[in-house]
Specification:
The chain is 19% helix and 38% strand. It contains two helices and twelve strands, in the order αβββββββββαβββ.
Length: 183
Amino acid sequence: MSRLSFPRSPFLRWGLLAVIQLGLIAVPLAERLDVQMTGETVPLAVAPVDPRDLLRGDYVVINLAISEISKDVPGAAGVTPGEQVYVGLADHGKNPATPVSVTRARAEAGDLAIAGKVVSVRRDHIRVDYGIDAFFLPEGDGKDIENQPRGRMTLEVALAKDGRSLPVTLEAGDKTYRSDALF
């Protein structure tokens, strides 16, 4: 019976360990870079809430308007909580995109779609979580965001072909903030 042999040199062992750790760090970064580089940018409407983070500064909790989808949208009535879905979006140029379909398969969602998970199903709407829950701002800018009237904020999101999303910019009134999630 043969035994699995491990490199005898301590330098090779530490080198192998370092390569594995770097690989574990690089995978999520490469995924973000892929969405940023290949994704199509789409504006989405946001309803802001302004908390603070002691380590990263001010941030806006993202409450996307497309998180709550009417059951009148094709496909929305047949989903269950916990299900992975793709929400097909209608691009309206500078105006926020709107949901036009909800599907279980990316190919059926159309050219522009965002991946999400159904959180709840109500009588007249479903709630979908897209994994975009916060947008970090430079220190001190949180108060400006907090005072913005509803409907004056738009989050620009990069959408990859497979439905993954990444926040790019937040437009609040006449100010534009670039995401720190980008490279």
